[in-house]
Amino acid sequence: MTEELLNRPAVKRVTECLVAAGSAAKVIVLSDTARTAQDAASSLNCELGAIVKSLVFAIGGQPVMALVAGDRQCNTKALPAALGMTGKVRRADADVVREITGFSIGGVAPVGHLNDIPLVIDQSLERFEVVYAAAGHPHCVFATSPKELSTLTGADISSQIAFEPSS
Q1: Phi, psi at residue 79, to the nearest 5°?
Q2: How far apart, in whole angstroms, are the C-alpha atoms of residue 10 and residue 5?
């Protein structure tokens, strides 16, 4: 199963982006799903906050992505300003996510998108030396650092785009 997953076009796009950027990160195939942040944290035996959620929204109709720690929620009110944009924020539906990124929800990677979209990274990810992001399939992730994630995506890091959910 590992070889089959690594050869899927979406996963190969992620691998090619990592290689092209000179990253040492490798795609990790998990035996359990990483479809949700909690699933990924359980599969990797790591803290929920070390999981990078790739969330796609539209601001005034323009698709954008917020890379948010698994234990945080996106502050959609702060998202436009963090990206230097204005407009109403709406969560993108599954069809738009696939059309823009080339990935299905549950495996949306922060790199390897079919279309360039503005991205911003949640600063709370800096609590961790290693974070895990989806790699194009619900059973695939890659490990990186928050700093490298910023380099790989060209995204700025913002302290405003995420908050701890109240219990």
Answers
A1: -60, -50
A2: 9
**Please, what sign has the CA dihedral across residues 146, 147, 148, 152?**
positive
Element (H, E) at 146: helix 146-153
Structure tokens at 18: 């990592």
| pLDDT > 90 in the chain, percent | 92
The predicted model scores a pTM of 0.96
Using the 8-state DSSP alphabet, how is residue 128 labeled? -
CA–CA distance, 10 with 74 (Å, rounded to integer): 25
Chosen CATH of 2-154 out of 3.90.960.10, 2.40.420.20, 3.60.70.12, 3.40.50.300: 3.90.960.10
| Tokens representing residue 31 in the block | 């035996």
Rg (CA), the chain: 15
Across residues 81-87, what is the average pLDDT? 96
Q: What is the pLDDT of residues 35-71, one digit of tens each?
A: 899 999 999 999 999 999 999 999 999 999 999 999 9
